[in-house]
Amino acid sequence: MLPSPPQTPQPPPAAAFRFSDTLCVATIGDCHLTDSTIQPLHFPKLQKLALKRVGISESSLHTMIAGCPALQCLLIYRSFGFGRLRINSINLRGICVKAYSYGRGLKFGELIIENAPFLGSLILSDRLHVSLIYAPKLEALGFLSSTCSSVLAFDSAVIQGLHVDSMTTAVRTIKILAVDMHALSLDVVLDLMRCFPSLEKLYIQSTGPGKSNCWRRKHRDLIRSLDIRLKTIVWRHYRGIKSHVDFATFFVLNAGVLELMTFEVNSEDYNEEFFAQHRKMLQVDNRASRGARFRFTSDWSYNHIMESSVHDLDPADPFERTCPSKENTNFVLCAGG
């Protein structure tokens, strides 16, 4: 976790940008970038830029990004001094934003993606209003959250927090989705799946007790009509309580192309007795996808990208684990073993 920033951010040293013409990766943090500092700068080769707890005006931020014609990855972490950011970039592949900035200066509240033809991933945190005007290749999206009511406006759908407020047509580009919900809700996830019908990977984080997720009668008609394309589900904080089991069995019994479902459990639940109980409770032997595997691990994985580096925006799936698992922390269930 990053330490608290200095009370009064100072400008960077005069020599900080002397290699700006050749930089490919830059992380700038805990400083104030004045208009006079930014105005003459140009980063012709910069591909990855992270601004962490940086004070910068809106005009200077736009000038800085415009001066990075090769920029592919942009991370803005708790920076301030600007209220709105407009993205017009033909090379940008990934954007990660954490807006909260310790209550100082002008708050970052609006992200407008006007023209980003190759943008593949968008990772958000805190309260933001995001307008997606042109991002035809956007495939990875997160973290949609029940605690931070960001508004995400597509051409044909509006999502506030975790709820689909309106939808005229489905958003078919999204294949990877990460959600953070306090109370686990199958209804909410199914609504998001209707909005994103091409979804192949789902990352879930849920720390609360969970709602009633009984589904057999309630979603009987939906099961016949919903085309579930999910191949991978990663679930952090799986506790094996009834609402969690009911939620999981919906996908065990109905996701016909599921390949891997990962349950990240507490270390005290990582034992043979827990695995045996859940083989039966999850009805693994009756699974819809005969090739599916069910993995239990105490080595929690999926990327807390907000506390990571700009390099984590590089993969096609920014939420996927990039470091190897620890030894003796994985157990895989399938019908044959």
From TrEMBL:
Stretch forming the signal peptide: none
Domain FBD: 222-263
Record-linked InterPro entries: F-box_dom-containing, FBD, LRR_dom_sf, LRR_FXL15/At3g58940/PEG3-like
Source superkingdom: Eukaryota
Domain F-box/LRR-repeat protein 15/At3g58940/PEG3-like LRR intervals: 5-204
Name the record gives this protein: FBD domain-containing protein
Organism: Triticum urartu (Red wild einkorn)
Classification of source organism: Eukaryota, Viridiplantae, Streptophyta, Embryophyta, Tracheophyta
